[in-house]
């Protein structure tokens, strides 16, 4: 998702982790990856299995925040829509893309659209929005994250810019 949003592939990752609460399972509690994009932008990706006491019953989800020199864009999975921040103001952006729970287990909003697109591609033979080359690029990033974690070093990723 980050590569698609940035319209640039990730060309280097540096990953660190900590094992404390889940050490007995051989699982990292939290993993943090620093990302360098081919465009020169940088980013961070955090994954965690740990929540403090009392937080398990609260809606703590994932988020995507893009910061630029003239504004920012934030998507919080536990709030409806997204927010576009520009100098001196904030505006709701595309509130139809909500991540809120739907009744009766129905897939809603952005998830509905994602699954619907997948089914439409299968039924009609249409090209998916995400190309096979873009999917392979994401797999390369995941492999580099694992390699960086194991080697404790930055890992470069050789790949074409399939996002332009």
Summarize the structure.
The chain is of the alpha+beta class and 164 residues long.
Structure description:
The protein has helices spanning 2-6, 109-124, 132-151; strands at 10-18, 30-37, 42-48, 63-67, 71-76, 80-86, 89-98, 155-156. It is of the alpha+beta class and 164 residues long. The longest helix is centred in the C-terminal third of the chain and has 20 residues, at 132-151. It is globular and about 45 Å long. The two termini are 14 Å apart.
Span of the ends, CA to CA: 14 Å
Low-confidence stretches: none
Radius of gyration: 18 Å
Report strand %: 25-35%
Rounded mean pLDDT is 83
| Global structural class | alpha+beta
Secondary-structure element pattern, one letter each: HEEEEEEEHHE
Main sheet attributes: strand count, strand direction, barrel closure: 4 strands, antiparallel
Map the helices and strands.
Blueprint: H1 2-6, E1 10-18, E2 30-37, E3 42-48, E4 63-67, E5 71-76, E6 80-86, E7 89-98, H2 109-124, H3 132-151, E8 155-156
Antiparallel strand pairs: 1-2, 1-8, 2-3, 4-5, 5-6, 6-7
Task: Quickly list its features.
33% strand, 164 residues, single chain, 4-stranded antiparallel beta sheet
């Amino acid at each position: 998702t980050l590569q698609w949003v940035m319209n640039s592939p990730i060309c280097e990752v540096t990953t660190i982790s900590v094992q404390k609460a889940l050490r007995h399972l051989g699982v990292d509690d939290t993993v943090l990856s620093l990302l360098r994009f081919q465009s020169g932008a940088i980013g961070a990706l955090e994954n965690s299995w740990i929540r403090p006491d009392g937080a398990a019953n609260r809606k703590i989800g994932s988020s995507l925040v893009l910061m630029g020199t003239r504004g920012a864009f934030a998507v919080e999975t536990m709030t409806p829509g997204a927010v576009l921040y520009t100098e001196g103001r904030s505006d709701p952006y595309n509130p139809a893309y909500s991540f809120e729970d739907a009744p009766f287990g129905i897939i809603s909003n952005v998830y509905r659209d994602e699954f619907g697109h997948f089914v439409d591609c299968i039924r009609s033979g249409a090209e998916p929005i995400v190309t096979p080359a873009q999917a392979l690029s994401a797999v390369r990033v995941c492999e580099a994250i694992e390699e960086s974690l194991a080697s404790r070093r930055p890992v470069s990723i050789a790949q074409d810019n399939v996002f332009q």
